[in-house]
Amino acid sequence: MSEDYSVHSFQHQVSELLLRHRSFLDVISKFQESNARVNRALMKSITECGCIKVQGERQPFPQDAAISLLKKRLKTHLDGKLCDNCLDIVKAEMGKNLFYLAALCNLLEMNLSDVIDQESSKLNTLGVFNLR
């Protein structure tokens, strides 16, 4: 199954299943809530489970360094790996977030695949000038 078909199929499935929160206002607030739940699940992985840790510090960013070197030197500030339980919870919350993103696309008559393709095209075109 191609990735594009999978995204299209998922978006169609969301369209068929979204009934109770079909209002634009409901969808946008549920999208925001689901995003917060992803963040909360990640925070609980740190503060309750402890499977991952955040070790934040200033990033070394030499002006004359090559991009390939920066990728190696810049840190994610994460130590550890999500345990199976936390991974399942984070995936579930991300899935709900994707559900409401697809629902938002449906209400705005947008194709989620087109959104992904447009962003990918922009990344490909701008390359290193699109670093975030």
Structural summary, described in words:
The protein is mainly alpha-helical and 132 residues long. It has one domain: Helix Hairpins (Orthogonal Bundle). 66% of the residues lie in helices and 5% in strands. It is built from 5 helices and 2 strands. Helix 1 (3-17) packs across helix 4 (84-107) and helix 2 runs antiparallel to helix 4 (84-107). The two termini are 31 Å apart.
Helix share bin: 55-70%
The profile of the biggest β sheet is:
2 strands, antiparallel
CA radius of gyration is 19 Å
CATH class: Mainly Alpha
Mean pLDDT, all residues? 90
User: What strand order characterises the main sheet?
Assistant: 1-2
Number of helices: 5
Strand content: under 5%
End-to-end Cα distance, whole Å, is 31 Å
Q: What sort of overall outline do the alpha carbons produce when their principal axes are compared?
A: globular
The tally of strands reads 2
CATH topology: Helix Hairpins
Assembly form of the protein:
single chain
- What is the total domain count? 1
Low-confidence stretches: none
CATH-defined architecture: Orthogonal Bundle
Protein name: DUF1573 domain-containing protein
Please describe the topology of this protein.
Layout: H1 3-17, H2 24-49, E1 52-54, H3 67-73, E2 78-80, H4 84-107, H5 112-126
Helix pairs in contact: 1-4, 2-4
What are its keywords?
single chain, two-stranded antiparallel ribbon, mainly alpha, 132 residues
